[in-house]
Write a sequence for this structure.
């Protein structure tokens, strides 16, 4: 495997982890926004407790993806920044407000105007951000961004508002909500919260079913709107699409039968398959249809040190992440005092 | 008003606002973990509830500050591409590496911050203390990596340009460029100084209002020890920084000193206002030969002046000179405050606590942050009109997208709201009665 393919593979794993981890945090924010019924406050408390210790670490996967692109595929970073100026700007506002609002609302008096305001901001920002990032991803895949002689040609608005882009935004949002609801069932069980378990089980079933329907619609849209991606799907992406479908259906069945850890694993497999299916289907393009991975790669001298940097960084990162999730996500919250 | 700016102006102001906002939170994110480690160490060692109360309070503040710092830092990662695609597209292969490495440092920071903030009840006291160590180390590492990239923009090395292409790329050499040692040292020390003095200011304020208990005295003492202890070192590092600028960026040196003529035995100017039309600096106290000596170690050394350069290739001399003078003045003011505290501490075995000293300590907090802002204005505006010194002009790097003014207006609005909200929360935190603090922290709801 070539050096640039290896680095892109690592960056793609980072992107997948961003969706699986930070995506679920955004999904948590969406359920926070739609918290309802007599247990709305308890639902929000569970969401806060679940994402509190981990959201900042999860967010860093985005920085990892950005800086990986910047160092190994600098022209792609620059081209996408020009082409997707508007959705990236909107996503930034969302990211800034989501994180700040989450930190702000955990201070201040309970049920004060302060808390209600920042809770609302947190929820809305969690809704908008995955949508615009998903729409941006859709426009990269759909061929709406052209790069001719090094010059980017993409409408400020039209590049990310095609039907496929808007669909991708909606799909991303649904995936985040689905992941979050599934993870939250596990959290509710760990804390012995039977009623919250029921609440999020229902939400997981609805979001999972919608995600499944959208995935099917998406295939039709890719066929009609993104011929290059469709070719790739038929050749290499099929296996991933099938895996995703099986894992997704499986995870819904497990949610239904209240086997939440298996459901969580199924959801993770389904979503990871979507991302890897997209990557494989799009190969060898980084920006369909003008920019290939090889053409966009930095010189070998750079790629070599980036790989070494990833290896050293990964050696520090892996045990740290293990510790984080081990402390907060494996056992029920039996506090050691 | 902001909508009438050109793309280049709007992008530059946008960058200044983003950096100027982020650096406050970033500096506190580097410095506060160190103070936390000191306080919690003493609490664990002696079982003193006052130190534990300080540690708990600062941990809550760090939770707010780190969140805003993390997201405003994300803005900057994107901003490099959104506003300066020409910089990143062309030079990303040379200078992308420190950004990629910084991502790992940021990861470690965020992971252990999560463990530290939420782990009080899940870890033993010493486990908890150790979980803070990686935050302090990776905070400093983050600062180091990011500042190397900026240092490269001042003294670009590690590549060759041939036929319009960038060749013979050496990212390690680029990262270890001539400005890296001094700029990274200067910034990391500044972060510790500003954090120490910012924290001390809170307790000095409390003592001025009559709360002269052990809690306030310890908070003041540890903050001042960190902030003022570094001040003399920082003055020396600042001198080193000026000599590196003199060697590699003579135009910037001329701008920050207000030096218009190329001359032997150039004077050091204290104060003064550069007049770009008359090409002279007026109202300054001049120390003959002082600049030649400071910059080159020889009172008869030649210092190049701004008149050698076409006006369009000069930075904004008024802004750079005033920012530089402010930074230096604050630096020496803090040095003086440190001497005051040091002399009293040696003679009476305790810190001065007169009202005048406490007032000075209150002023020192914001002043240290102002000095950081002024220092970055010197660094960034002093490099203009280049984005990469001598290699790429800022105008060549700016995005082709219109409507940056809207982005700027949005940024200012959002950041104003965040500044007000986080200041309100921190003040509220500082005023909270302490009894709540000694009880175990519950999971935030």
């Amino acid at each position: 495997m070539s050096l640039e393919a290896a680095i892109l593979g690592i960056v793609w794993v980072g992107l997948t982890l961003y969706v699986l981890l930070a995506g679920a945090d955004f999904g948590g924010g969406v359920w926070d926004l739609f918290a309802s019924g007599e247990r709305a406050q308890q639902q929000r408390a569970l969401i806060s407790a679940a994402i509190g210790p981990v959201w900042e670490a999860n967010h860093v996967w985005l920085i990892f993806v950005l800086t990986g692109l910047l160092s190994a595929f600098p022209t792609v970073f620059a081209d996408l920044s020009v082409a997707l100026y508007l959705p990236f700007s909107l996503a930034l506002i969302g990211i800034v407000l989501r994180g700040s609002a989450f930190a702000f609302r955990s201070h201040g008096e309970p049920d004060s105007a302060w808390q209600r305001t920042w809770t609302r901001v947190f929820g809305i920002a969690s809704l908008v951000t995955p949508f615009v990032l998903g729409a941006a991803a859709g426009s990269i895949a759909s061929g709406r961004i052209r790069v001719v002689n090094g010059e980017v040609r993409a409408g400020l608005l039209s590049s990310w508002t095609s039907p496929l882009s808007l669909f991708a935004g909606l799909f991303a949002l649904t995936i985040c909500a689905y992941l979050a609801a599934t993870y939250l069932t596990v959290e509710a069980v760990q804390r012995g919260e039977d009623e919250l378990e029921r609440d999020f089980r229902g939400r997981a079933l609805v979001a999972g079913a919608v995600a499944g329907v959208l995935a099917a619609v998406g295939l039709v849209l890719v066929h009609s709107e993104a011929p290059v991606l469709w070719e790739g799907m038929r050749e290499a992406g099929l296996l991933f699409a099938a895996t995703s479908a099986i894992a997704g259906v499986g995870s819904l069945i497990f949610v239904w039968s209240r086997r939440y850890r298996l459901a969580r694993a199924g959801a993770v497999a389904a979503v990871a398959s979507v991302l890897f299916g997209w990557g494989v289907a799009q190969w060898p393009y980084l920006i369909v249809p003008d920019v290939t991975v090889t053409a966009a790669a930095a010189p070998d001298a750079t790629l070599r040190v980036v790989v070494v940097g990833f290896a050293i960084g990964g050696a520090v990162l892996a045990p740290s992440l293990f510790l984080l999730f081990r402390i907060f996500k494996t056992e029920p919250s039996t506090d050691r005092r | 008003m902001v909508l009438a700016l050109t793309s280049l102006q709007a992008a530059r102001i946008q960058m200044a606002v983003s950096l100027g906002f982020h650096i406050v939170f970033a500096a506190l994110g580097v410095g506060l973990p160190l103070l936390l480690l000191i306080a919690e160490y003493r609490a664990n060692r002696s079982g003193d509830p006052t130190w534990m109360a300080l540690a708990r309070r600062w941990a809550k503040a760090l939770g707010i500050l780190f969140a805003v710092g993390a997201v405003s830092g994300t803005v900057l990662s994107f901003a490099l591409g959104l506003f300066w695609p020409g910089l990143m597209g062309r030079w990303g292969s040379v200078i992308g590496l420190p950004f990629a490495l910084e991502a790992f440092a940021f990861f470690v920071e965020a992971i252990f911050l999560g463990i530290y903030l939420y782990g009080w009840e899940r870890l033993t006291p010493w486990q908890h203390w150790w979980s803070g160590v990686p935050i302090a180390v990776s905070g400093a590492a983050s600062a180091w990596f990011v500042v190397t990239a900026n240092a490269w923009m001042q003294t670009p090395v590690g590549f060759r340009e041939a036929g319009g292409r960038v060749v013979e790329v050496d990212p390690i050499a680029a990262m270890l460029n001539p400005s890296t040692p001094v700029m990274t040292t200067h910034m990391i020390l500044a972060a510790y100084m500003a954090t120490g003095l910012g924290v001390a200011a809170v307790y000095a304020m409390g003592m001025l209002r009559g709360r002269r208990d052990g809690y306030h005295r310890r908070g003041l003492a540890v903050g001042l020890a960190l902030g003022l202890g570094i001040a003399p070192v920082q003055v020396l590092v600042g001198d080193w920084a000026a000599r590196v600028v003199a060697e590699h960026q003579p135009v910037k040196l001329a701008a920050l000193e207000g030096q218009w003529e190329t001359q032997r035995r150039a004077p050091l100017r204290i104060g003064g206002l550069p007049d770009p039309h008359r090409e002279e600096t007026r109202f300054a106290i001049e120390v003959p030969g002082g600049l030649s000596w400071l910059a080159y170690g020889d009172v008869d050394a030649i210092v190049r002046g701004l008149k050698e350069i076409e006006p369009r290739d000069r930075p904004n001399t008024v802004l750079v000179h005033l920012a530089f003078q402010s930074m230096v003045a604050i630096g020496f003011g803090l040095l003086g405050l440190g001497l005051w505290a040091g002399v009293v501490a040696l003679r009476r075995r305790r810190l001065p606590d007169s009202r005048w000293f406490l007032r000075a300590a209150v002023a020192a907090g914001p002043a240290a942050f102002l000095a950081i802002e002024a220092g970055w204005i010197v660094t960034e505006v002093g490099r203009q009109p280049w984005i990469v010194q001598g290699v790429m002009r800022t105008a060549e790097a700016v995005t082709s997208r219109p409507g940056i003014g809207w982005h700027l207006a949005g940024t200012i609005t959002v950041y104003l709201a965040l500044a007000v909200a986080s200041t309100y929360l921190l003040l509220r935190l500082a005023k909270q009665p302490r009894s709540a603090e000694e009880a175990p922290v519950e999971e935030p709801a």
In short: The first strand of chain B starts at residue 160 and ends at 162. Residues 235-401 of chain B form one domain.
